[in-house]
Amino acid sequence: MVAIPDFAAGAMENYGLVTYREVALLFDDKSSSASSRQSVAITVAHELAHQWFGNLVTMEWWTHLWLNEGFATWVSHLAVDSFFPQWNIWTQFLDSTTTALRLDSLETSHPIEVISLFLGKQQDSAAYFY
């Protein structure tokens, strides 16, 4: 795991190395808030879960990306709860899931789509990054 000061994303898992924006990996034991510590723990667990769900075990195609994120999210909360049961992480998980379901029920909601940016071979995986 490497903390990078100006890293654009919050974190990114790669084979054998997970890179993080500094604030997504590091906290000050004396001055960081409880929510900051929880955020770091969830982010680290989420990215390490991606070492399995996404890197080692990969979905069949990009249309199944939700499986990758879903498993990593669930496992990260499971792991953090096992180390820090006093944080009541599952309550936070249920709160955020309820909010997501409420937003998903809106008339303006639609399925996530993988959009091809390149006209070419359908099998070209580079054509499916968006």
Automatic annotation (TrEMBL):
Protein name (Swiss-Prot/TrEMBL)? Peptidase M1 membrane alanine aminopeptidase domain-containing protein
GO MF term set: metalloaminopeptidase activity; peptide binding; zinc ion binding
Question: Which Gene3D superfamilies would you find in this protein's record?
Answer: Neutral Protease Domain 2 (1.10.390.10)
Q: What is the lineage of its organism?
A: Eukaryota, Viridiplantae, Streptophyta, Embryophyta, Tracheophyta
Q: Which GO terms describe its biological process?
A: peptide catabolic process; proteolysis
One CC-aspect GO term:
membrane
Cofactor(s) it depends on: Zn(2+)
Q: Which keywords appear in this protein's UniProt record, sorted alphabetically? A: Hydrolase, Metal-binding, Metalloprotease, Protease, Zinc
One Pfam family this sequence matches: Peptidase_M1
Source domain of life: Eukaryota
